[in-house]
Amino acid sequence: MADMIHRLLTLLLAVVLLVGCSRPPEIPRLSSDAVILAFGDSLTRGTGAGDGEGFAEILAVSSGRDVVNAGVPGEESDAGLARLPGVLDTVQPDLVILGHGGNDMLRRRDLEQTKSNLRQMVMLARERGASVVLLGIPKPGLFLGTHPLYRELADELALPLEDAVLADVLADRELKADQIHPNAAGYRQVAEAMHRLLTDAGAL
User: Would you tell me the crossing angle of helices 55-63 and 184-200 to the nearest 10 degrees?
Assistant: First the structure.
């Protein structure tokens, strides 16, 4: 009997540890007047959907915060890195949603350099007092999955990461406008996933 109880307690502890490990790193709670910056390329801009139907605009409504959409279609990460300081100084965000690197993959750039560019973007935001969450971008191919560089970067820098929703959306023809962009329904799912991530991380 004692052995059975010991095994049960060990199993319970393992489950608690597993659940605890699955939670994203915590970030400061956003005040009601906080500003969120969505920074990236066409996936951030909302290409494939109509005006106001991108994930940033939907997240603004669901979160009750001001969300500034700073997505530039076609931009690669080196250009994003060069652009970011000016955007940060203008917007002065409390939190940055960083979703960049997709065009690097499409154009077969050196992804170690992409990872370095993203790392520098995170540091630039943090130096200005902003929290950062990462939106993982799927790697091109028949079997979509978020590129592992996003998980590696999230683990290295203790960043909350949403690493499933874009791959799931772009695997569903009902949720995409073309091979690399969601439609309005797809972006709504991205916004819902980002809202869950921010809630789980303690920001909302």
Answer: 50
Q: Please answer whether residues 69 and 187 qualify as being in contact, where contact means their C-beta atoms are separated by less than 8 angstroms.
A: no
For residues 59 and 53, the answer to whether their CB atoms sit within 8 Å is: no
CA distances from residue 170 to 26, 141, 167, 192 in whole angstroms, order as listed: 28, 11, 5, 15
How far, CA to CA in Å, does 38 sit from each of 12, 69, 115, 183?
39, 5, 18, 18
Angstrom distance (rounded) from CA 87 to CA 82: 10
Q: Which amino acid is present at 26?
A: E
For the stretch 81-113, pLDDT in tens is 999 999 999 999 999 999 999 999 999 999 999
The answer to whether residues 39 and 77 touch, using CB atoms and an 8 Å cutoff, is: no
Task: For residue 104, give both structure tokens.
Answer: 């690097």
The structure tokens listed for 145 are 């999955």
